[in-house]
Specification:
It is built from 3 helices and 14 strands. By secondary structure, the protein is an alpha+beta fold. Strands 1, 2, 3, 4, 5, 6, 7 and 8 form an 8-stranded mixed sheet that branches. Strands 10-9-11-14 form a 4-stranded antiparallel sheet, covered by helices on one side. Strands 12-13 form a two-stranded antiparallel sheet.
Length: 334
């Protein structure tokens, strides 16, 4: 009887093993390279999407408040007075004067400089050479007398007649009519608003000294606003990544055929601000991702003839310029 002789098992030689490992490593490195490239491309695309979304939100917020500027519930600004108790009001937790926080001038701006142009924005927070926009208005909704908060500021109006600015705690001490006319009148209360937009040097103030940008914090410029809350101006973050804010202001000329002429904030006198009818704003917004493969050394031409070139350390971020125009529509109501 014949039996099949078992075959000998032949293994791989060392050379064959090394060749297999080498080929496998080459293929694996290719896969990793493709994965890394796709991941970087995704992150950069996501950064661009975030940039556009941030810009849209920033524009929406600025445009809303600029359009609300100089709304006084149907009363001309010159017919607004301050209640006696409000006239002596001190603005808490800030070095800004009451004339900045509470005024009947609906719109005002300060030209950017190397240091903060406003005392309640510390130099440590202020992004140099960026403009500051100040908007004041009443509303937008009427406030019933029963809902008035003692510590807040309000405007009490008679449409087409007069108005008085007062602190909520003074409501009971106001005259039965706050206007010159003695006959019964319809009176409405409006929440008084002051909003101050500026560019802050950092996105977070939590790592170093609380409430201020310092060396321990990041260096992401952020669109920020001071909002009157009670009798304090409180900082609110709007959008991180806004590097520049420049504006020019349109005023009707006195020519036979009037046209809008635009000026920088420094060229407008205090008495001319109530005559501003339009604002042109340039804003530079950058992405969130630092891209070592990309260098953006462009110079940007902003409104007012301001030239902006990012510093070398920030040129690896993608950025875009946004220009828009807003009518201060309440100044043109007449």
């Amino acid at each position: 009887m014949n039996y099949a002789r078992p075959r000998r098992q032949a293994g791989m030689t060392l050379i064959e093993v090394m060749v297999s490992i080498t080929v496998g490593l080459i293929l694996l490195s290719g896969v990793i390279s493709i994965f890394s490239s796709n991941k970087l491309a995704y992150r950069l695309q996501e950064s661009t999407n975030v940039l556009d979304e941030n810009a849209r939100y920033a524009l929406n917020q600025l445009q809303y408040h600029l359009r609300m500027g100089d709304h006084w519930g149907g009363v001309e600004p010159s017919r607004i007075r301050k209640d006696a108790t409000l006239a002596a009001l001190a603005i808490a937790s800030t070095t800004c004067t009451q004339s900045i926080a509470v005024s009947n001038v609906g719109f005002f701006a300060l030209e950017g400089a190397s240091s903060s142009p406003l005392s309640c924005i510390p130099n440590a927070d202020y992004q140099p050479n960026t403009d500051v926009l100040i908007v004041r208005y009443a509303g937008p909704d009427r406030t019933p007398s029963a809902s008035i908060v003692a510590g807040d500021v309000y405007l009490r109006t008679r449409v087409g007649a007069e108005a008085v600015l007062f602190k909520g705690s003074s409501l009971a001490s106001l005259p039965s009519t706050v206007y010159e006319t003695p006959e019964p009148v319809y009176e409405a209360n409006w929440h008084y608003m002051t909003v101050i937009y500026f560019i802050r040097k950092c996105a977070s103030q939590d790592l170093g000294t609380a409430g201020v940008c310092d060396a321990a914090d990041d260096t992401t410029p952020t669109l920020t606003r001071l909002v009157l809350s009670g009798t304090s101006l409180v900082q609110e973050d709007v959008v991180a990544g806004v590097e520049q804010l420049q504006a020019t202001f349109g005023k009707l000329s006195d020519a036979a055929v009037p046209k809008i002429q635009y000026y920088a904030a420094s060229a407008i006198s205090a008495t001319d601000w109530p005559s501003i009818v339009n604002v042109q704003v340039s804003m530079i917004v950058r992405g969130t991702e630092y891209d070592v493969t990309h260098t953006d050394g462009r110079s940007f031409k902003l409104y007012g003839g301001f030239d902006y070139t990012p510093v070398a350390a920030d040129r690896h971020y993608g950025r875009k310029q946004y220009n828009f125009s807003v009518q201060i529509r309440n100044t043109t109501r007449g």
